[in-house]
Design goal:
The protein is mainly alpha-helical. The protein folds into two domains: 64 residues, Winged helix-like DNA-binding domain superfamily/Winged helix DNA-binding domain (Arc Repressor Mutant, subunit A), CATH 1.10.10.10; 45 residues, no CATH class. It contains five helices and two strands; from the N terminus they run H-H-H-E-E-H-H. Strands 1-2 form a two-stranded antiparallel ribbon. The longest helix has 21 residues. It is globular, with a radius of gyration of 16 Å. The model has no long low-confidence stretch (mean pLDDT 88).
Amino acid sequence: MSRATPLAIVLAPGGPRPIVRQIADQIRLAITTGELGHGARLPSVRALASQLLVNSNTVARAYSDLASEGWLQGQHGQGMFVAGQQGRLSQTERRRRLDEAVGAFVATIVEIDLPPSIALAAVTAALQDLDARRVA
């Protein structure tokens, strides 16, 4: 039996995004950047819940969501593993999610009264960092 790959997940309990989304998003990012490769075994639901100090149902829901999107696959009695095709979403779903994320981002920028140029620079830097992590 392969060992589970440790996950470095940082939660923001008071943040605007639900904890289950934060967990799923960070696992997706780890897969996208290659931190978690194809076939990597994830920690058990109980182990990750204990590490993050959250309810096991929260981790189970994040894993379930990722599995239904194609990012993870469960193997009975073995655990959850990174799937081979990493959940390629339809173009329509990708666009819907992009629009949702952009809308939330713009609302936050307006709420904190940040100039668009600073917001764009921050997004550009974050995307460049993501590209650098993918290459490394």
